[in-house]
Amino acid sequence: MSLEEQFAHRFAGLRHGYSVFTPTKETREDGKAKGNYVTISQTITQKELHDLWGQHLKGEKGLGLVPIDENNSCVWGAIDIDEFTLDLKGLAKKLKKFKLPLIVCRSKSGGAHLFLFVFDPVPASSLQKKLRQVASAIGFGQAEIFPKQSKLLLERGDRGSSLNMPYFGGEDSTGYAFGAKGEVLSPDKFLEYADTLVLTEKELTDLEVAPVVEDAQWLDQSPPCLEHLIAQGFPKGMRNSGLFNVGVFLRKKFPDDWEKKLEEINHKHMQPPLSAQEVLSVAKQLQKKDYFYKCNDQPISSFCNSPLCRTRKFGVGASGGTPLFSNLTKQNSDPPIWFLDVEGGRLELETEELLNQTKFQRKCMDSLNIIPPKVRDNVWRSIIQQLLDVLTIIEVPKDASTEGHFNELLETFCTERPAREKDEILLGKPWSNKGRTYFRLADLMDFLHRKNFREYPRNKLTAKLKDFGGNSHFFNIKGRGANVWHIDDFETQSEVHELPTFDERII
């Protein structure tokens, strides 16, 4: 196989959508390269995919692929770490030391993509869960996980979230991978190394990333971040913050003697232990009110595993400090269609359902059997704006858009069963005369509804007809007044098809 064929095989995923990136020489304030991103909703053939990989490896157009396929399964996933001061070589060695079969690739912004591969497709949710466990275990709990979605609403135009592929520019790429010893890998050596790390589904399931803590019974049902920090030790300068979050947990699980246990844990797990005065200060702070975990603060944010934490009795629960919503996607149709991840489920929304909390709750209840708690309107607007700041936009072919669908149906209505006489307009048929087609608006609306097209209300429909150069008209037909619309005739085929000839002997 050619190099592009090998990459296409290793990064097999969704064939109904992808993204391309045309770089510029500029960079953003956060260090990321500037350029033009276009997300394309289009089914591609294997040959077209190979061509896209060819352009990618030549450095002509950057390719972004969606790991989740049409069956909501994956053969690869990734942890996307957006930190630009990473020791990438050290991270590669750390993964090797912990026996974690992931490959470190430098992202175009200088962060890291940690890729994991499996032989046969596994449920996207399973790969997500394992990658989240790994990210939490190695101290990158806030990193993005790909696949971002566990289920796609493909029939509605949902195309998920793509990740930029490695080795843009081939041998000269800045998006290169590191081997087990921290050495830089060429594109072909990357593929060879990946082949040695591919997992079976059972190996993926059995991959051990849970922290090992001696005498850990007291940690049962705690947030997973505390398990990792107790096992690995609290970072220097963060013992006070760490002990505070341990105290929040102890108050929940041991309400009668949590202060005594706080002192014990300080002496056993804080290296070196905080002074008696510092422990007393933390205890007094916790006595004032029912504090919650400081999920967004270090050190626990680095070891966060929100989905798992929400299942723990003394975890963050449904009202935790981490976002309930993620991965907002907008399909650029008319009107636009929005897709959003809500507690692991995928939701299709209209603009009004996204803006209005009551309508949003109703949609969640209808589709996902959950009711997210209401927040203040200004908080809700802030949440939506944060989602919009990292919005994924899907450009759809014109004929796949709502407008394109309407245009096709309008042409069908005007040309499929035309009236031979003007009088037949009263029978619901369109009538053509001198380059114009005449019809009653109600008859067009009935036709659209029979075709399950209800996206345009009456006022929107008349506006669309005016876009076609349409206008209203009055006819007197058999003594009856008829208000009609007229638009220019659609072009019809003027040339006769040549029918193929068949050899009767073959038949």
Could you please describe the fold and organization of this structure?
- This protein is α+β, with helices and mostly antiparallel strands.
- Helices cover 35% and strands 20% of the residues.
- The chain has four domains: 3-206, Alpha-Beta Complex (DNA primase, PRIM domain); 217-318; 323-394, no CATH class; 401-488, Arc Repressor Mutant, subunit A.
- It has helices at 3-10, 46-58, 88-97, 124-137, 187-197, 201-206, 224-232, 239-253, 258-269, 276-288, 306-309, 351-355, 357-368, 377-389, 402-415, 441-450, 458-467; strands spanning 17-27, 33-41, 62-65, 73-81, 103-106, 112-123, 144-146, 163-164, 177-178, 184-185, 325-331, 337-342, 345-349, 392-394, 431-433, 436-439, 471-477, 480-488.
- The strands form four sheets. It has a six-stranded antiparallel β-sheet. The chain has a four-stranded antiparallel β-sheet with strand order 2-1-3-8, covered by helices on one side. It has a four-stranded mixed β-sheet with strand order 13-12-11-14.
- Strand 11 and strand 12 form a beta hairpin.
- The two termini are 39 Å apart.
Sum up the structure in keywords:
507 residues, DNA primase, PRIM domain, six-stranded antiparallel beta sheet, four-stranded antiparallel beta sheet, disordered C terminus
Question: What is this entry, summarized?
Answer:
Helix content is 35%, strand content 20%. It has 507 residues and is an alpha+beta fold.
Question: Which helices and strands appear, and what pairs or packs with what?
Answer:
Layout: H1 3-10, E1 17-27, E2 33-41, H2 46-58, E3 62-65, E4 73-81, H3 88-97, E5 103-106, E6 112-123, H4 124-137, E7 144-146, E8 163-164, E9 177-178, E10 184-185, H5 187-197, H6 201-206, H7 224-232, H8 239-253, H9 258-269, H10 276-288, H11 306-309, E11 325-331, E12 337-342, E13 345-349, H12 351-355, H13 357-368, H14 377-389, E14 392-394, H15 402-415, E15 431-433, E16 436-439, H16 441-450, H17 458-467, E17 471-477, E18 480-488
Parallel strand pairs: 11-14
Antiparallel strand pairs: 1-2, 1-3, 3-8, 4-6, 4-7, 5-6, 5-9, 9-10, 11-12, 12-13, 15-16, 16-18, 17-18
Helix pairs in contact: 1-2, 1-5, 8-9, 8-10
